[in-house]
Design goal:
This protein is α+β, with helices and mostly antiparallel strands. The chain contains two helices and three strands; from the N terminus they run βαββα. It has a three-stranded antiparallel β-sheet, with helices on one face. A hairpin with a 3-residue loop joins β2 and β3. The longest helix has 21 residues. The chain starts with a strand and ends with a helix. About 5% of the residues are buried.
């Protein structure tokens, strides 16, 4: 998920986090899931900016790669 203006994006108008994001002056945001196996979401990695500087597809691809590596490490660390 990427948005260049969290507060103005209609997908997030009912988001309970919106007042906090506004108070923290968060503008651009991006999040990707950390998925264990094929279907179980075990977490998320989130990044934001306090300026209107959109995240790119390359930024998202890098975060997805990091999330994939994290999922492998988490799976390997469990008994």
């Amino acid at each position: 998920m990427r948005t260049e203006d969290f507060a103005a994006d209609p997908r997030f108008q009912d988001d309970p986090y919106l007042p906090i994001a506004r108070a923290d002056r968060i503008v651009s945001a991006m999040a990707v899931p950390v998925v264990s196996g094929d279907t179980v979401v075990v977490g998320a990695i989130y990044a934001n900016r306090r300026s209107r500087r959109p995240f790119t597809a390359d930024d998202e691809a890098a975060l997805v790669t990091l999330a994939d590596e994290l999922a492998v490490e988490l799976a390997d660390s469990l008994p």
